[in-house]
């Protein structure tokens, strides 16, 4: 966590006056403090590549390496608990979780992602923290942290408390720079992540397919951003939309999240 020290009143006054005289307004005129996603607004999920959002979209989620979208609520994707594909070299060897033979532990569902050793939360936060601050300076309104539930795929090497400790540090960093913090998936830990780590909203995949949407809405209310995929849709899309359990902000996308110029592109909302 960041420890804030009180500045003496006189010194603070001098600094404030100096800042007013010499500093330009903050980028994008960002309001003070985190702002939640607009409740029930239409969502687009663009992790496979950035493109102009379709008409009617008010919330867009993009990778941290992409640009935010002016005049839309923009969420910055950060993989805080595993290495991103192609970015393994960016991580010191000692922060990678290793098995008994000293080999990096690879996520069984994502063979190009290595699991980070969340027992070393301070060191991981030193790397992820600048990414979060870049999201803020790039004009994003919020950040979502993926793979919070990585600990469940390590055969007991990592624990929930390890993930919770790192998550709390990352959420604090987001809040310090005015970003709302989104919990990504991890339905079974939603209440704990909200109450103890301080998450503000949720970004969830396939909650309709796995019948767990209420696990998120009972914690975050209308501030749940849901993505369903065409290859695992549990029933026709209009029935998913009509289901009262389905979050109001929901989008149907193709599994690879391709851009509109790709023949596999799918984008549907309930609006």
TrEMBL record:
Record flagged with keyword Zinc: no
Record-linked Gene3D superfamilies: Aldolase class I
Positions of the UniProt region annotated as Disordered: 22-47
Keywords, in A-Z order: Signal
A Pfam family recorded for this sequence: Glyco_hydro_114
InterPro entries according to UniProt: Aldolase_TIM, GH, GH114_TIM-barrel
Positions of the Glycoside-hydrolase family GH114 TIM-barrel domain: 43-258
Signal peptide, first to last residue: 1-23
PANTHER family: ALPHA-1,4 POLYGALACTOSAMINIDASE, PUTATIVE (AFU_ORTHOLOGUE AFUA_3G07890)-RELATED (PTHR35273), ALPHA-GALACTOSIDASE (PTHR35273:SF2)
Name the UniProt record assigns to this protein: Endo alpha-1,4 polygalactosaminidase
Source organism per UniProt: Microbacterium aquilitoris
């Amino acid at each position: 966590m960041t420890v804030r020290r009180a500045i003496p009143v006189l010194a603070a006054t001098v600094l404030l006056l100096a800042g007013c005289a010499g500093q330009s307004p903050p980028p994008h005129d960002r309001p003070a403090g985190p702002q939640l996603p607009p409740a029930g607004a239409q969502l687009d999920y663009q992790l496979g590549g950035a493109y102009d959002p379709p008409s009617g979209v008010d919330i867009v989620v993009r990778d941290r390496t992409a640009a935010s979208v002016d005049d839309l609520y923009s969420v910055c994707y950060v993989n805080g608990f595993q290495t991103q594909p192609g970015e393994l070299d960016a991580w010191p060897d000692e922060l990678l979780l290793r098995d008994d033979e000293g080999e990096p532990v690879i996520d069984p569902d994502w063979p190009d992602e290595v699991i980070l050793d969340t027992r070393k939360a301070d060191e991981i936060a030193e790397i992820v923290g600048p990414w979060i601050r870049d999201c803020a300076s790039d004009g994003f309104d919020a950040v979502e942290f993926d793979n919070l539930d990585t600990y469940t795929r390590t055969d007991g090497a990592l624990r929930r408390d390890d993930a919770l400790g790192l998550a709390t540090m990352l959420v604090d960093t987001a809040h310090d720079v005015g970003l709302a913090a989104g919990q990504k998936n991890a339905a079974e830990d939603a209440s704990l992540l909200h109450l103890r780590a301080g998450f503000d909203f949720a970004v969830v995949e396939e909650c309709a397919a796995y019948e767990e949407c209420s696990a998120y809405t009972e914690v975050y209310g209308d501030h749940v951003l849901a993505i369903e995929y065409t290859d695992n849709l549990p029933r026709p899309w209009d029935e998913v939309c009509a289901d009262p359990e389905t979050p109001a902000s929901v989008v149907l996308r193709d599994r690879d999240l391709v851009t509109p110029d790709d023949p596999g592109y799918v984008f549907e909302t309930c609006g």
